[in-house]
Amino acid sequence: MDRPLDRRTILGEAPLDGAGALARGADRARLVRLGPNPFLAARGVESELAEKRRLIAERCLSFHAQIGYRDPAESRRAYAEIHDRLARHGAAPDRYGICLDWSMGYPAAQRPGRPCGTGMILTGPEDFVALTAAAPVAPHFGDFVLGMPAAVENASAALLAGSTTIGNLSQYFTFRLPGWDDDLGTTLATVEALGLLAAQDVRILVHSNLDDGYAAWFEDMGSALGFAMVERWIVEELIGLPLGQCFGHTFTEPVKRLAFQLALSRVNPTPGTMLYGNTTLYGPEPVANYGALASYLLVDAFSQWTNPSGHALTPIPVTEAQRIPTVAEIVEAHLAGRRLAERIGDLAPLLSTAEAGPLADRLVTTGTRFRDRLMAGLEEGGFDLADPAEMLLALRRIGPAELERRFGETAAGEAVASSFVDEIETLARRVLAAIPETEKLALARQRPRIVVATTDVHFYGKRLLTLVLTRLGLDVIDGGVSVDADVLAERAAAASAEAVAVSTYNGVALSFAQKLMGELSRRKIAPRVFIGGRLNEIMADAGSSLPVDVGAEIRQSGALPCRTVEELVAALVARTTEEEEGR
Question: In b/e form, how buried is each residue of 369-405, taking b as 16+ CB within 10 angstroms?
Fold first, then answer.
């Protein structure tokens, strides 16, 4: 059996003083108080948490929309227009998830010159206030607030704008800003921001999207549920704030999706934020994606009809897989979702929890065991379980793979494979089945060495690519997640790699390709570079604040754009064939 994790090895000698960080946040609350916004006034409530509890009691479904264009003025117009257009149909959204750009995670004084994604950039509290004043919709400031170096200043601005739901705590565990490695400073900033929220006169709901944290990394759903319980311990027991959790991106299998919602509502009775759309189910054909939208939304509407937990439903626009959706596309998705939800009472008798209910029981059992083993292991290793900063940093530094290896389910037959494991396995088999045997043999003979990495925390494509290439017999080397270009180039040089494959999602496809090609050139190496994923970026000379496709520019940089795994494999085969014929 493994020896207990050692605090000194993981965290060093000095205490973290989470209590001091909480106290600093409480002191800041003397100056930063919750501001007004139209949602609170229109609903006559002091917080979104209070409204969620009312909706649960009345068994009313609620709806969530995502919003956030680069230009704040464009976002303000969309904030009002989406509400007004849907309100004319009696379908106004209850809440907006406000998509800040990930560059806003840097402290404001250090943002100039930092790389940007495709999200909204607000320059000060006045921008936050102007945005939330645009319509009577609950403002949810989620991504890139908590869990970031700028947690305190962004949480302060969100409060001044009247936001009573603030997150995204799960990002703390997995998201790394490019060029930023001060995890201790990020931890203390996060705890101080939580102290600020806890000292408000109303109950601020802390948001955590589990799929942005370790739930998307654990291969057992019981581990994901158990870690959600640990998150709740830190936020609710140690800090005294309510924690609303959400999930959904990677939960494709309907029974497992429903079972996890049932289990989560039992281990965390605090109202949830939203059930996110199953975006990994979306493909390149928008019309076909309406079927995907209906499939996950039916599960979510049924779960809230039979077991209301306060989670809002999220009809994701069908163009989400290709680009940032337009206002019209957001409205269309919500109208489709509302029509489905209107019929859930008639559809419910056709549906059942006969399979999901027992599975939820099993998840609660295994999740509780995971939580108990993890907490006992940390205590035995000398960690201070009463210090929120120490708990957060320990969990982040240990990482999901080690946590699951040490504390995951060991009883035979008790683990439940996470949906993304099955989904990626299915996709990998489909890709492999389409490759001719002659091409497979050519790759196996050459066995090229390829480094696989991602520019950000979204590792779905990297996992799929690694699985396919490994089964083709290639020598696959882990280049890292959220890796900087210079680090990736160094890893490619150390491995004498013949190729580098990069998966990207966050709107830096071209700039990362250019930086990587420069770093490889400086090391006097020239592996073939493939860039896949969402190949878009906001271009300063394009005259628009919306991202544009940069595939052609990536090719000009010397890298090869590959929009699918199949394209990358075909390019590798072509290269291998050329090399064999040239001998």
Answer: bbbebbbebbeebebbbebbbbbbbbbbbbebeebbe
Question: d(Cα 260, Cα 366) in Å, to the nearest integer?
Answer: 12
Shared fold status for 15-207+270-350 and 434-581: no
Task: Determine the Cα–Cα distance for residues 157 and 123; give it in Å rounded to an integer.
Answer: 10
The domain locations on the chain are 15-207+270-350, 434-581
User: Superfamily for 15-207+270-350?
Assistant: Methylmalonyl-CoA mutase (3.20.20.240)
* Protein fold of 434-581: Rossmann fold (3.40.50)
How many residues make up the chain in this entry? 583
The SS3 call for residue 495 is: coil
1-13 burial, b at 16+ Cβ within 10 Å, e below that, comes to: eeeebebeebbee
pLDDT band, residue 208 (cuts 50/70/90): very high
DSSP string spanning 68-95? --SSHHHHHHHHHHHHHHHHTTT---SE
Fill in the amino acid letter for 327: V
Q: Confirm if 307 and 262 have CB atoms less than 8 A apart.
A: yes
* Phi/psi of residue 433, nearest 5 degrees: -65, -25
Distance CA 158, CA 164 (A): 8
Strand partners, 140: 97, 165
Residue 7 phi, psi dihedral angles, 5° rounding: -60, -45
pLDDT in tens, 88-136: 999 999 999 999 999 999 999 999 988 888 889 999 999 999 999 999 9
Q: Which of 1, 10, 109 is nearest to 383 (CA)?
A: 10
Residues 6+ away with beta carbon under 8 Å from 106? 114, 148, 149, 150, 177, 180
Q: What are phi and psi of 274, to 5 degrees?
A: -155, 165
The DSSP H or E segment spanning 155 is: helix 151-160
Whose tokens are 């209906």? That residue is 294
